[in-house]
Amino acid sequence: MIVTETALAGAYTIDVERHEDERGHFGRVFCTDEFAAHGLHFTVAQASLSYNRRSGTLRGMHFQFPPDAETKYVRCTRGAIFDVIIDLRPESPTYLRHVSAILSANNSRGLYIPKRFAHGFLTLVDDTEVSYLIGEAYAPNASGGLNYADPLLAIAWPLPITVISERDRNWAPIAVDGDDRLARMDLLASA
Ligand SMILES: Cc1cn([C@H]2C[C@H](O)[C@@H](COP(=O)(O)OP(=O)(O)O[C@H]3O[C@@H](C)C(=O)[C@@H](O)[C@H]3O)O2)c(=O)[nH]c1=O
After folding, report:
1. Residue ranges per domain, the chain?
2. Can you give the pLDDT at residue 189?
3. How many C-beta atoms lie closer than 10 Å to residue 7's C-beta?
4. Which stretches of the chain score pLDDT less than 50?
5. Any residues with CB less than 8 A from the CB of 102 and at least 6 apart, and which?
6. Which of 19, 25, 62, 148 is catalytic?
7. Which uninterrupted H or E stretch holds 168?
8. What is the pLDDT at residue 186?
């Protein structure tokens, strides 16, 4: 695996070293020891699959409030997505900055997302499947979100958004004079 830290500390792209032969290829996507060598101590509590019928489908920008924050390891196993993560750690030098990556079945790239990040994606083709490994149990009452079109975040989505849930369309933009969602992301709250 090729484990590369992104511009947001603690978030990594994970590329597969493919062993190619006439049948196709084989490669590792997760290894406890290799992760640990990069300081990543990831144990899987749940795995989820997201199927998306249409190109232009947006899911996000989601996070779980501490103490139920989630670590996610995301990969696109069919089709392609424009994947975006946002640093919500108030103490971080890259607070509220985002990073994007194209994840596709062709490139087999994965994204490792630490706790206290928001995550979302836009499908780039029809029939796209996204596979997650998640480090913590799901706490439905701890879910929160940010608006994908928030001018403060300034995410340059590469396609028009044509399919989105009502919940995701209606997340409030960040309030610059104090936002309760962001206030709840600090280290004390996550302790
Ligand atoms: C996220 C989640 C949802 N659900 C249920 C709640 C609901 O009835 C149904 C669909 O949930 P949602 O609309 O939240 O699904 P979705 O919008 O696909 O939510 C996902 O979006 C991406 C961007 C992420 O990063 C994921 O962690 C997750 O938040 O599935 C679970 O049972 N377990 C889970 O872990």
Report:
1. 2-190
2. 57
3. 10
4. none
5. 80, 81, 82, 83, 109, 124
6. 62
7. helix 166-169
8. 87
| Residues flanking ligand 1, CB < 6 Å | 48, 50, 59-60, 62, 72, 119-121, 138, 165
Q: What is the pLDDT of residue 119?
A: 98
Residue 26 host element (H or E): strand 24-26
CATH classification number, 2-190, choose in 3.30.1050.10, 3.40.50.1820, 2.60.120.10, 3.40.50.150: 2.60.120.10
- Best residue among 50, 116, 122 to mutate for probing ligand 1, ranked by most atoms within 8 Å of CB: 50
What is the ipTM metric for this complex? 0.97
How far, in Å, is the centroid of ligand 1 from the Cα of 20?
A: 35
> What's the longest Cα–Cα distance across the chain?
59
CA atoms of 84 and 64, how far apart (whole Å): 16
Cα 28 versus chain centre, distance: 20
CB 74 within 8 A of CB 83: yes
Annotated active-site residue 148? The verdict is no
Output the pTM of the full model: 0.96
Residue 44, burial from CB neighbour count under 10 angstroms (0-12, 13-18, 19+): middle
Residue in the structure block whose two tokens are 């989630």: 70
Residue 137 tokens, joined: 């149990």
What is the model's pLDDT at position 5? 97
- Pick the atom of ligand 1 nearest to 113's CA: 25
